[in-house]
Amino acid sequence: MTKTNPGNYFEDFAVGQVIEHATPRTVTEGDRALYGAIYPTRFALPSSAAFARAVGLDPHPVEELVAFHIAFGKTVPDISLNAVANLGYAECRFHRPVVPGDTLSTRSEVIGLKQNSNGRSGVVYVRSTATNHRGEVVIDWARWVMVHKRDAASPAPETVIPELAAAVAPEDLVVPPGMSFTAYDFAAAGEPHRLDDYEVGERIDHVDGVTITDAEHMMATRLWQNTAKVHFNTQARPDGNRLVYGGHVISLARALSFNGLANAQLLAAINAGSHVAPAFAGDTVYAWSEVLDRAETAVPGVGALRLRLVATKGRDESMTLRGEDGTYADGVLLDLDHWALVPR
Amino acid sequence: MTKTNPGNYFEDFAVGQVIEHATPRTVTEGDRALYGAIYPTRFALPSSAAFARAVGLDPHPVEELVAFHIAFGKTVPDISLNAVANLGYAECRFHRPVVPGDTLSTRSEVIGLKQNSNGRSGVVYVRSTATNHRGEVVIDWARWVMVHKRDAASPAPETVIPELAAAVAPEDLVVPPGMSFTAYDFAAAGEPHRLDDYEVGERIDHVDGVTITDAEHMMATRLWQNTAKVHFNTQARPDGNRLVYGGHVISLARALSFNGLANAQLLAAINAGSHVAPAFAGDTVYAWSEVLDRAETAVPGVGALRLRLVATKGRDESMTLRGEDGTYADGVLLDLDHWALVPR
Amino acid sequence: MTKTNPGNYFEDFAVGQVIEHATPRTVTEGDRALYGAIYPTRFALPSSAAFARAVGLDPHPVEELVAFHIAFGKTVPDISLNAVANLGYAECRFHRPVVPGDTLSTRSEVIGLKQNSNGRSGVVYVRSTATNHRGEVVIDWARWVMVHKRDAASPAPETVIPELAAAVAPEDLVVPPGMSFTAYDFAAAGEPHRLDDYEVGERIDHVDGVTITDAEHMMATRLWQNTAKVHFNTQARPDGNRLVYGGHVISLARALSFNGLANAQLLAAINAGSHVAPAFAGDTVYAWSEVLDRAETAVPGVGALRLRLVATKGRDESMTLRGEDGTYADGVLLDLDHWALVPR
């Protein structure tokens, strides 16, 4: 028993502690294919090596979420195996493209701690950094989770709550070196809309829906080496359902957003994210987006759209985020605030 | 709303119109692996790079249906998103092997139109051409679909019905340049039968059956970036079933046909195809073949078999295509007339 | 009908007979990705090309079980299509790593025959050898299966029962040439335990469980081109269930064993294996291990653990292999005796 990983409890974390997560993972063309089999993604850049080459990216990057899920998955055994809840993300930036052959590793630093008033759990804030095998940073992000204490009687640590930005500033978004949208092929990409065609406040109903199956969400989650029991084991929850990994809903919604946001080719940042309600096999997931902001980047021809991506269980053509009482509307599964790069 | 794709309606098509379909797609070894995970294929040539090299094909081609499904999938958002029915295929030729690294794009030309007498829909005929990133044609085919009109009151176009051949002539079949079957390894291929071992009129019961699951047909269909809602969304049909993509049944039947047609290594042409009945998860698919014709090709040692590949729901050892009234027998799902290349 | 493979019956086998199995198969990065999507594997060596390179293995090998399942699958159409039961394995050795691009073929020699007293079936012993496209042996193993007779009246062959070792001797284990664990990164591998940290007799409960789905076990089994009908066809068994391929349970259990045996990086041998009970979709599979022996190898720094890997339906924290009557305890699915290579 002592050789298996019980996961860390709240009192195992200390501010400033650095954890090197296990299992480096090499990304391959197999990951791209599986991602395309599990999510209805059609963005031209990750779909086509020729399109990517034409905008200056060679070798052919995989979608940012492939890298994110792999990098995130590594943190689960150390950070959130005993988590009660994933509370939030912030300051997630995609620093450079990930291509087949890259080996990703993740390290986390504890940047905040706050015991809950009930004394039985607490919130752990970490900043995680994924690097490739050349030691270059590919993604970093902050995340906070509520974690059980091993022993309610153990003393509370000093409360440290990190300052996290409400959104990544547009000037901090990274455009991959060498990328240019001057020769961008709108016909190949599937839609004619440029940065300036989107209005702040505009909402886009992405129309299509996908019904979840257990086999698909388990295959995706396993691909990322995410080990949280509730995703795989019908004996892990009283209701016998396998809880769908929140990242599965992110990827479903992002893929569905192609229909109306086909030119949002790359994710540049995730500003904030809430998994509002759990999803299970049999749920039909739809998505809508709201344009939150629009910005230029340092690279001519490349703009950035700040978008709220909302996944819902069942379609909500009214695209209602919150009810009159300010709480999320029924059916909302995900509220993801992010920046995407688009042609100007 | 205006940014999403509503698909084309009957009145949006005009004879001579050319549509460049979106989302070029690079084929990878991941596609080959997924194809082998989803279909019980065992043809030696696409399974083994060494076998392919020994018959003159290097790099290692993927199965023709991988390329076909990808090429076909691109046409769905523009041609058949509002289709009532896929009516037929003709004159489909495989012009050159597709190998990992090739990026495929598809273009369609409208070659015929005929409004239905009810005034609410019409038949659209297109010729679609898939090219690789070097601009070489890899597959072309004609297809006709029945499409809704947006407005029943809009005027009928002039009726144009293209002349399509009942079958591709043997002399028009393309044998991949450099391919030879003089060093063909029958033991590795799994069966000893050559062209002349098959008799016109002979029927082969392929024996094995596969029960469909929703996860598998969705993963396949998504891999081809086919976006037709009915395949993915239990809310898209009144019965709550996800309709299986017709191409999934084609690939299942083709893979099952290995048992008795192991040497039918490459598809050279599809002459005609009918999706006779819908298929759903839980259906068990079997296949049988009828030898329709036999031909030589320009390449010594390489022959061509014209085959009718029939998929059935449940096994029909009597291999009955049609009842006495001339309509398809109960249980027939697919009737696919094609040419395959075999050793002589 | 005569062109399809009816499989071999007991009287089709003769001691000394050699069968070249069909369908050579090239391993790709797609196989690695699918293996990781279907099994919760996290061993650092097959996950990371960088980790593999650091221990001297470049190019990046796939897991031994990927190669084993492919090699084994080739034997099914000739050896076990008419099998009543898989009775056992012995003397399975992994001779050299398999890397993407390798094409595997399998040959079997009949090494024993024993007709059953009922006269209707018999036991066939074969030694199978898988080679890569350079003709190098990658795996060999002995296996015995009970096979139906075509005709109960046909005469019994002379009984020949081969001598098979109870376990591969440690000095016969192959350490891949060039591999060294002197620069082994325990943090990346996920656990600190070395050879000497494991005690003979020690049992390790691997804690995690995975609930099987039909789509996943069929995809895996198809990937290995294993054609046994019972895995794919709900009409093949009276109960309408699809029997899970025994190798699927092996791979699930091996992957689950990461938690406690993270440094058991490579399989070196399978000494014996019993598929104790059938598994079906809906079963939740857990695993535990018992340390049977510990040995050095010829390579400094590389040790070998002889392990009993037990898969169970539902978790058995008592880790009971057999009841007082000596028969396997309820819930035991698999009992696999093998050698794994670990750092010293």
Describe, in plain words, how this protein is organized in 3D:
Three copies of one chain form a homotrimer. The longest helix of chain A has 17 residues, at 64-80. The first copy, chain A, is globular and about 60 Å long. In chain A, strands 1, 2, 3, 4, 5, 6, 7, 8, 9, 10, 11 and 12 form a twelve-stranded antiparallel sheet that branches. Chain A has 344 residues and is an alpha+beta fold. The model of chain A has no long low-confidence stretch (mean pLDDT 96). Chain A contains eight helices and twelve strands. The first copy, chain A, has helices spanning 29-38, 44-47, 49-54, 64-80, 186-189, 214-223, 246-256, 258-261, and strands at 18-20, 25-26, 83-94, 103-115, 121-131, 137-148, 203-205, 210-211, 266-275, 284-296, 302-313, 332-343.
